[in-house]
Amino acid sequence: MLDPNDRVMIFIDGSNLFHACKAFREGFKVDYEKLRDALTSGRKLIRAYFYGSINQFESKIMEKQIKFHDALRSKGFQVEVKRLKKRSEKPIEKGVDVALVTDMLSLGFKRVYDVAILVSGDSDFVRAIEKLKSEGIRVEVAMFKVATGPDLAKVADRYIALDDIANQIELK
Known about the structure:
Blueprint: E1 7-13, H1 14-24, H2 32-40, E2 44-54, H3 59-74, E3 78-83, E4 85-87, E5 90-92, H4 96-109, E6 115-119, H5 126-134, E7 138-143, H6 150-155, E8 158-161, H7 166-169
């Protein structure tokens, strides 16, 4: 049973969720407000963070990304973005996971929240989750099954398979 007095913060790995949606079902898009509400589930939301990147190398893509990030901000999300870096010919995302884990740890250690909800399937977050748990902070992981690292689901206090709430969180 979830405690309605729990203070919750949500940390969304935007790129990871974007690719997970494609792996889950072609054309599936998340309604971020519905996702936030479903994950909060009656508890006290302190803040929902979205971490992503901007592709400044392609202006049409960049314009879409900026509009998307602005829409999230208008819905109350704290949006943290990094610019893509060029490695050989392909632009790559750098620094996004570090920003997410830095915020998740520092806010947790300051006791700003009781429960962190990580929306990512990336097993690179396992050590950060272990650290938070060692400080008495509960951590939930939410992601589609197809995109969840097995170690990540195991280390979480609660695993939320987005497959099970896909109808609730789908953008229609």
